[in-house]
Amino acid sequence: MKYMLLIYGAEDCWTDDERNECMVESMRICDKLKEEGKLIDSSPLFPVAAATSVRVRDGQRFITDGPFAETTEQLGGYYLLDVDDLDAAIAIAARIPPAKKGTVEIRPLFPLPEIED
Q1: What is the mean pLDDT of residues 71-85?
Q2: How high does pLDDT run on average in the chain?
Q3: Of 96, 58, 60, whose CA–CA distance to 76 is shortest?
Q4: What is the pTM of this model?
Q5: Could you read off the pLDDT of 14-64 as tens digits, one per residue?
Q6: CA–CA separation, 36 and 83 (whole Å)
Q7: Which CATH architecture has domain 2-108?
Q8: C-alpha 92: how far from its chain's center?
Q9: What are phi and psi of 30, to 5 degrees?
């Protein structure tokens, strides 16, 4: 089953050294998951200051800088996994470094039927 792990945290909760250590450890985990055939994709995101939000209302497009939610925790990255079950996804989420300072939200991906041309 496919799961998306969404990584949330305060952008200012890491020192530069901690952030670098987090990236190195996260890359090690990604390499191992890839070897096991469990990792589809993963990436950190640029800070919220680099975000652009798009809304369409009544056919009109509205574009703003950043996200709308005013919260201390921001979406900082993701892992896309293909594992046996939720327990396997939870075990992986608990291993990734951002879980120590933020939140890892786990969501199953809704299976879509194949579209034929």
Answers
A1: 90
A2: 91
A3: 96
A4: 0.85
A5: 899 998 999 999 999 999 999 999 999 999 999 888 888 899 999 999 998
A6: 10
A7: 2-Layer Sandwich (3.30)
A8: 13
A9: -60, -45
Quote the DSSP letter at residue 11: T
Work out the number of other CB atoms within 10 angstroms of the CB of residue 99: 15
Closest alpha carbon to 14 in 97, 104, 86, 112: 97
What is the pLDDT at residue 70? 64
pLDDT at residue 68 greater than cutoff 70: no
Q: How many CB atoms lie within 10 A of CB 38?
A: 18
Cα end-to-end span (Å), the chain: 26
24 forms beta bridges with none
Distance CA 93, CA 58 (A): 39
Q: Is 36 exposed, middle or buried (CB count within 10 Å of its CB: 0-12, 13-18, 19+)?
A: exposed
Please say whether the beta carbons of 9 and 102 come within 8 A. yes
Task: Say if residue 117's pLDDT is above 90.
Answer: no
Q: 């792990």: which residue's tokens?
A: 5
Give the DSSP letter of residue 45: -
